[in-house]
Automatic annotation (TrEMBL):
InterPro entries assigned to the protein according to its UniProt record, in alphabetical order: Acyl_CoA_acyltransferase, GNAT_dom
Protein's name in the database: GNAT family N-acetyltransferase
Species of the source: Streptomyces albidocamelliae
Gene3D superfamilies associated with the record: 3.40.630.30
Short name of one Pfam family: Acetyltransf_1
Residues annotated as transmembrane: none
Domain annotation N-acetyltransferase: ranges: 1-120
Superkingdom per UniProt: Bacteria
Amino acid sequence: MSKSLKQAAQHPEANPWYRAVYVGDEPVGFVMLSWKPPAGPYTGRHFIWRLLIDKHHQGRGIGRETLTQVAALVREDGATELLTSYDPGDGEPWPFYQKFGFEPTGEIDDGEIVLRIVFPAQ
Ligand SMILES: CC(C)(COP(=O)(O)OP(=O)(O)OC[C@H]1O[C@@H](n2cnc3c(N)ncnc32)[C@H](O)[C@@H]1OP(=O)(O)O)[C@@H](O)C(=O)NCCC(=O)NCCS
């Protein structure tokens, strides 16, 4: 998380937006988006830059609930899609994102596979 906050400070142009994830009073994770950055490849779009659930709390549906809440927030902001990317390899989070409805866009960004979910019209 400190690495993410440092990156956020180093990249103000990415318009970082971040929140801690709590279950009750307990901090269990962290999520950071690039929220409609004014420049760069994701200009004006919402991109999940980091999503981390503490390993003692993984596999309990908290990651999915976090995505659900983030998706609701970006839709309230008028978004029709949400993007992310992942580093392919052992333990990759692709099955997690696929179950939620993300699909590859076909782009590779800095070695990472870019995914997106398109929201149905409201
Ligand atoms: C990936 C991550 C965010 C998922 O959060 P989580 O709270 O463990 O996931 P959930 O419990 O909500 O899982 C939802 C579904 O995805 C599946 N899933 C979650 N992570 C998975 C993984 N790495 N591989 C395969 N399936 C996975 C779960 O089994 C569950 O499936 P089900 O609905 O069939 O039971 C979390 O494991 C994590 O922080 N991992 C390390 C960092 C990381 O990879 N972050 C994402 C890229 S930056």
